[in-house]
């Protein structure tokens, strides 16, 4: 009796049909999206639905911790407190920052047929916790996080 071992592919471990956001989404809306969906990162897609970036909680924190003249570190705390306070209007505070201001452009994308060993190597070498599974035209098919990769190991 022979046991045929099949290779586990990206499509086998990805979360299919990932939530995606546009570059124009405000940071307030992004933080709310993270909270409501209990996630920490999402692909960013253009008006045609193609991946143009990825944005994570770490991207937001990193950008705000550096701060600029237009983007003080305290602005992040204003956003977070407003997300917690349902009474606050979305248009109260200026300046208005968007996903485009903090996203990572040209994220790591892998094809659905890439073996998970290669996906893991790519994530490790690029020092990222998530990759977008996309087709050749850059349409997102799924997302793989480091937690998804841990689920590949046998019990």
Question: Please, could you describe this protein's structure?
Answer:
- The protein starts with 9 loop residues before the first helix and ends in a 5-residue tail after the last helix.
- Helix 2 crosses helix 4.
- It is built from six helices and seven strands.
- It has a four-stranded mixed sheet with strand order 1-7-6-5. Strands 2-3-4 form a three-stranded antiparallel sheet.
- The protein has 155 residues and is an alpha+beta fold.
- The longest helix is centred in the N-terminal third of the chain and has 11 residues, at 27-37.
- The radius of gyration is 18 Å and the shape is elongated.
- It has a single domain (10-150), classed as CBS-domain.
- Helix content is 34%, strand content 18%.
Outline, from the CA principal axes?
Answer: elongated
Poorly predicted ranges: 90-94
The appropriate CATH architecture is Roll
List the strand order in the largest sheet.
1-7-6-5
What's the helical proportion of residues? Answer: 25-40%
Number of strands: 7
The SSE order reads HEHEEHHEEHEEH
Strand content: 15-25%
* Largest pleated sheet: 4 strands, mixed
């Amino acid at each position: 009796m022979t046991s045929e071992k099949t290779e586990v592919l990206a499509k086998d471990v990805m979360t299919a049909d990932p939530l995606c956001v546009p570059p124009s989404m405000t940071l307030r809306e992004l933080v709310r999206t993270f909270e409501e969906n209990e996630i920490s990162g999402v692909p960013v897609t253009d008006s045609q639905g193609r991946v143009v970036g990825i944005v994570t909680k770490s991207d937001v924190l990193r950008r705000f911790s550096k701060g600029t003249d237009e983007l003080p570190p305290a602005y992040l705390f204003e956003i977070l407190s407003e997300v917690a306070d349902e009474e606050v209007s979305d248009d109260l505070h200026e300046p208005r920052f968007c996903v485009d201001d903090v996203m990572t452009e040209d994220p790591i994308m892998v094809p659905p047929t890439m073996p998970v060993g290669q996906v893991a190597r790519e994530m490790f070498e690029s020092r990222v916790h998530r990759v977008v599974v996309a087709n050749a035209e850059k349409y997102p098919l799924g997302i793989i996080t480091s937690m998804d990769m841990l689920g590949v190991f046998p019990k």
